[in-house]
């Protein structure tokens, strides 16, 4: 798969695709910030894509592509935010509140 942005201008780039496919094509230490609204793990409307929160592996890939000092802003559901936070922290991110 060739990495193609869905939107790009002078202020930033947005990629819309399978997150691991996109992340694996991004060079190490190249992203200033990551803002994401991933699945909340609530099985929304019985949908398979919302069965669980993103794995530690996903957050490790995010950390790999993030520049030193970069931020990760991830939205989460109120019933499952703790699972999201644990996976993010287990991947090596520092949780700040």
Topology:
Blueprint: E1 7-9, E2 12-14, H1 19-23, E3 31-36, H2 56-65, E4 66-74, H3 81-90
Parallel strand pairs: 3-4
Antiparallel strand pairs: 1-2
Structure description:
The model has no long low-confidence stretch (mean pLDDT 93). Strand 1 and strand 2 form a beta hairpin. The termini are far apart. This protein has helices at residues 19-23, 56-65, 81-90, and strands spanning 7-9, 12-14, 31-36, 66-74. It has a two-stranded antiparallel sheet with strand order 1-2. By secondary structure, the protein is an alpha+beta fold. The chain is built from three helices and four strands.
Q: Average the pLDDT over all residues and give the rounded result.
A: 93
Total number of beta strands: 4
The profile of the biggest β sheet is: 2 strands, antiparallel
Helix- and strand-based class?
alpha+beta
- Give the H and E element order: EEHEHEH
Through-space gap between termini: 37 Å
Helical fraction equals: 25-40%
Q: Strands across the major sheet, in which order?
A: 1-2
- Please mark out the parts with pLDDT under 50 across 5 or more consecutive residues, or reply none: none
- Count of helices? 3
How does the overall form come out from the CA principal axes?
Answer: globular
Our estimate of the beta-strand percent is 15-25%
Rg for CA atoms: 14 Å
Name the features.
3 helices; two-stranded parallel sheet; 26% helix; two-stranded antiparallel ribbon; 4 strands; 97 residues
């Amino acid at each position: 798969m060739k990495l193609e942005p869905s939107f790009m201008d002078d202020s930033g780039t947005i990629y819309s695709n399978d997150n691991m496919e996109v992340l694996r094509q991004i060079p190490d230490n190249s992203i200033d910030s990551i803002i994401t609204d991933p699945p909340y793990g609530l099985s929304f409307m019985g949908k398979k894509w919302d069965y669980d929160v993103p794995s530690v592996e996903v957050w490790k890939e995010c950390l790999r592509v993030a520049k030193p000092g970069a931020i990760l802003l991830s939205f989460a559901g109120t019933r499952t935010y703790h699972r999201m936070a644990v996976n993010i922290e287990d991947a090596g991110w520092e949780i700040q509140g």
